[in-house]
Amino acid sequence: MFAFRGVDYLEIDSLLSDDEKLVRQMVREFVENEIIPHIEEWNREGKFPLHLVPLMAELGFYGANMEGYGCAGMSNVQYGLIMQELERGDSGLRSFVSVQGALVMYPINEYGSEEQKERWLPALQQGKALGCFGLTEPDFGSNPAGMRTRGVKDGDDYILNGEKAWITSGTIADVAIVWARTDEGVRGFLVEKGTPGYSAKDIKGKMSLRASVTSTLALQDVRVPSRNMLPKAQGMKAPLSCLTQARFGIGWGAIGAAMACYNESLEYAKARKQFDEKPIATHQLVQAKFADMITEITKAQLLAIQVGRMKDQGRADFAHVSMLKRNNVKMALDVARAARDILGANGVADEYPIFRHMCNLESVFTYEGTHNIHTLIIGERVTGLLAYK
């Protein structure tokens, strides 16, 4: 692997404050020291590095853009830069941090009672408790409103029955935020590990996100006290707002994966010699690929910063975040494929990170709203007409 020196064709750094660059450098060093030397081994073994959980807590990664309860209180741009650098290491590590903050801590903070916040947010921020987000079901991914998981009132409790699929951190989570249909509409419940009838099982045989825990959740007559229901979350708007938080981080993270693939293929092309012992970087078709890659990465950086600034000002909404996620993940996947082509046969060897990133991005392309779903969200915004119902 080649040393990473950053990717900044259009002086993007001039748009960042000193504090933002300091956060990026801190995470960049963490990735260089703690992830990159070991990630290929973890990927081969299908192993999530649990030992990094406390260290990432110490660095303030969990709920970094939240206030109070021990959270770092960073801006959304600083948070985005954390996601960018983590995914430059691996999408699985970024997914873990993204779920912990955007899909577990955020809904508790936004929709939970003070008792729930006091109990869970400090522990989640410190990495002493881990969480997962149970929305997707085996038969309902892009249409979460079709969920079959049901919560039935029984005295002061709810009885939950259903199944969730493709849940990041499911088997290592101390608490799951499970979304279920009730007579009052869709509600969110805090289901604790060890609750009778609740179980989680790892999904095996993944060719993507292998250094991440991905699980199914089963709920069979799970009795949950009413006090474990998120009191301010009612209807599909609540879980969808959580997805918007996660999608924002994904839009930044994808840039990191693209940077890693671009940097690796560029250094490789300058060193690899063919045809009269000239570096393949001198070939016109190879240079055309680099011109496309750097242009698309630069556009993605500008898009991420603008959405981040808007989010910090309270002006970014779900349709803006859809554009960020849709464009940047597609860009990263295209960059990874072009980089793999430049490396030729070496592009499929895990001596280099490119094929791992490419496989990971196939999942990122799908989760938190597929590319096509985000296309329709943007289409609805610009036409005012709904196309997917």
Q: Report mean pLDDT, rounded to a whole number.
A: 97
- Given this structure, which CATH class of the largest domain is correct? Mainly Alpha
Radius of gyration: 21 Å
Low-confidence spans: none
The number of helical segments is 11
- What count of domains describes the coordinates? 3
Q: Main sheet, how many strands, which sense, barrel?
A: 4 strands, antiparallel
Quote the distance from N terminus to C terminus.
Answer: 47 Å
Percentage of residues in DSSP E strands: 5-15%
The count of strands amounts to: 9
The CATH topology label of the largest domain is Butyryl-CoA Dehydrogenase, subunit A, domain 3
- Helix/sheet category: alpha+beta
* SSE string, helices as H and strands as E: HHHHHHEEEEEEEHEEHHHH
What does this structure look like?
- By secondary structure, this protein is of the alpha+beta class.
- It folds into three domains: 12-125, Orthogonal Bundle (Butyryl-Coa Dehydrogenase, subunit A, domain 1), CATH 1.10.540; 131-228, Butyryl-CoA Dehydrogenase, subunit A, domain 2, CATH 2.40.110; 237-383, Butyryl-CoA Dehydrogenase, subunit A, domain 3 (Up-down Bundle), CATH 1.20.140.10.
- 50% of the residues lie in helices and 15% in strands.
- The chain has helices spanning 18-35, 39-45, 53-58, 76-89, 91-111, 114-125, 237-271, 284-312, 318-343, 354-366, 371-383; strands at residues 131-134, 150-154, 157-168, 175-182, 185-192, 198-202, 214-225, 273-274, 278-279.
- Strands 2-3-7-6 form a four-stranded antiparallel sheet, with helices on one face.
- Strand 2 (150-154) and strand 3 (157-168) form a beta hairpin.
- Helix 7 packs antiparallel against helix 10 (354-366) and helix 9 (318-343) packs across helix 11.
- The protein starts with 17 loop residues before the first helix and ends in a 6-residue tail after the last helix.
- The model has no long low-confidence stretch (mean pLDDT 97).
